[in-house]
Amino acid sequence: MLVQGKTALVTGGSRGIGREIVLTLLNNGASVYYIDLAEGESLAEYQEIAAKHGQKAVFKQGNVADEAAITATCEQILEESGGIDILVNNAGITRDGLVFRMTAKDWNDVLTINLTSAFYISKVISRSMIKRRVGSVINVASIVGVIGNGGQTNYSASKAGLIGFTKSLAREVAGRGVRVNAIAPGFINTKMTEQLNEEQRDALRAQIPLGRIGEPEEVAKVVLFLASDLASYVTGQVVHITGGMGM
Ligand SMILES: NC(=O)c1ccc[n+]([C@@H]2O[C@H](COP(=O)([O-])OP(=O)(O)OC[C@H]3O[C@@H](n4cnc5c(N)ncnc54)[C@H](O)[C@@H]3O)[C@@H](O)[C@H]2O)c1
Fold first, then answer.
1. Per-residue pLDDT averaged across 120-142, rounded?
2. pLDDT the model gives residue 237
């Protein structure tokens, strides 16, 4: 129960890594609000876990790329919850392609959803954390934002940007008791990576010292650590969760 009595907000919480983050926070005592484009199939399960311990699991439909709408949603969540202690900026997409074939739309969509949305949401939520002098923000970046990847110029730029955003925000809010960190997962088994064929998976495994693709639970456990008081002296860091890839 590492986050007992805390309230979290997770974006992209309906499936994949976001789903495991929501489950892990709920199972460790937090109430969780999550924002996604669609409710997905997880809400009933979340509410069942929350009900057992007198916590809450609340879904808010929203597009993190829509500044006006997402700002209003975050303000509503702050009012309903009485304050957010843990913010996980997790929603993200890929629109892969070689740079000379990439459309400006694919570039802009990835930058807006993966990077600019963290600015929109953190602006509202971190202001309230500062006032309450408590909070942990966790931005879900990627190893690709550190080492690059052919065919992912838009994605790697968004994740490298998220790492820079994390370090600058960490410096802005540290004096008010708020911590801001990023995680950089490697290849994790989710919908985002399921289109890889067996040959591509073998090639990937060959680059990973631990010799396997990661599971969403292994990412969620690091988020739990950063969200909890176990990480009380950790801020402005990028934690790699890659099985050793890119070390
Ligand atoms: N899977 C990996 O290997 C991997 C590796 C490194 C980083 N990541 C990052 O982890 C995060 C989660 O990825 P995942 O693999 O679980 O992906 P996923 O596609 O399975 O889940 C992403 C979730 O974000 C939601 N989402 C997408 N656009 C949104 C928007 N505009 N507004 C609100 N919600 C939106 C989706 O509906 C979905 O529920 C992403 O930021 C991704 O870049 C994933």
1. 97
2. 98
**Phi, psi dihedrals of residue 72, rounded to the nearest 5°:** -65, -40
Evaluate the CA torsion angle 116, 117, 118, 123 in order and state its sign. Answer: positive
Beta strand segments in the chain, E: 7-11, 31-36, 57-61, 86-89, 135-140, 178-185, 238-241
Mean pLDDT for the stretch of residues 130-139: 97
pLDDT in tens, 14-50: 999 999 999 999 999 999 999 999 998 999 999 999 9
In the numeric block, which tokens belong to residue 118? Answer: 């963290």
Catalytic residue check, 120: no
Q: What domains, with CATH codes, occur in the chain?
A: 7-241 (3.40.50.720)
Q: Does 245 contact ligand 1 (Cβ within 6 A)?
A: no
Distance 100 CA to ligand 1 centre (A): 25
